[in-house]
Design goal:
two-stranded antiparallel ribbon, alpha+beta, single chain, flat, 2 helices, 2 strands, 26% strand
């Protein structure tokens, strides 16, 4: 199958993994309806997590 048919020339990523005798192929294609790009989402999640963590305290020896 032609990759351009699957992705319609949109940004995409192809990942393949072999488990035993089976090869799994995953094609991820960016949606036209995307409200937030993956980079921005991951950045937001990291920053939100960083802001909610409590500071680590040193354990007594």
């Amino acid at each position: 199958m032609d990759m351009n048919t699957i992705t319609n020339n949109k940004p995409s990523r192809v990942t393949e993994m072999q488990i035993g005798d089976t090869i799994f192929t995953v094609v991820s294609v960016e949606s036209d309806r995307v409200r937030e790009h993956l980079y921005d989402k991951v950045k937001r999640m990291i920053l939100n997590d960083e802001n909610t963590q409590t500071p680590h305290t040193a354990a007594a020896a």
